[in-house]
Amino acid sequence: MSPLSGIGGRLYRGETSIDFVGKRRRWYSFSGLLIVLSAVVLGTQGLNLGIEFKGGSEFSISKPGVTVEQGRAAMKTAGVSGESVVQIVGNDRLRIQTGALESFNEVKESLASTFGVNVDDIDTQIIGPSWGEEITKKALYGLIGFIIIVLLFLAMTFEPKMAIAAIVATVHDVFITVGIYALVGFDVTPATIIGFLTILGYSLYDTVVVFDKVRENTKSITSTGKVTYSAAANLAVNQTLVRSFNTSVIALLPVGSILFVGSGLLGAGTLKDLSLALFVGLTVGTYSSVFIATPLLAQLREREPAMRALAKRVAQHAPGAVTAEAKATSSATITDLSSSTKTTWARGPRNQPKRKRR
To answer: Architecture of 18-48+131-312 per CATH?
Structure first.
């Protein structure tokens, strides 16, 4: 029989257990390494903001057989000195994005001459810097508002420490996702922001499922006194582990198809921006729900006086456990018995056998 046969049932019943909470320092170290690497990438490379955020111009030409080299040559002929982003979208569409241009009409004419199309057939879009700043502010406001609302909801529905642990895990997911996004070098577009907000919701959804099981396992834990809070929380993670894994795999399959098939073969830029954020965010979100959120919650709760007292009671009733008080009592008893024995032997009467006279 395979060792994985019936693993879900054994994990749920506690027959098989993975120590997620007890080895939390290992998970914290791994996450810390990812956060440091993300910070280094963001500090050195930064994010490639799309024209929706920094402003600029966009030109789109639809014609079979267009190439990136033709687009770059056309921009050079038009005298555009700044860096231009030239991409193939689909099979017969070329998209060129530049910064703010003074010779906008000259660029259109150069592109029309290079590709042999009419000037009116070139789709153009101009976005000013002020509009890009407004979009950036709205994105930040939406992110901050989302975190505040979720924090209040979790604090009222569960408990404040659960809300803190969930938000820390969510910020962890977003920061690592942004770092990978900067490493890959994809443009940050409104579709990217939608992807970030989506992974926030998914990460919290997975964390809430685990926390609900934690709350169920620790509902009357202080009155029973059988297990510690960390042990009950670790059992909850094991009980929901198979469900989290299956849900994540099912969610990643279509997102992976969009990322590798849709953007890779079809060249859809919007799909690429959205799918990368979703793919990385879903993966990191599942990881944080199991390895970060619950261990952090257990660490926060174990600092409470009630949970410390519970841990002492559990340790006292553990099989084979000998407390310090019991050891001291046993040692004192042995000492007293030893002293009493010595005294008895020292003061007791000596019974000598009598000699018989002949």
So the answer is: Up-down Bundle (1.20)
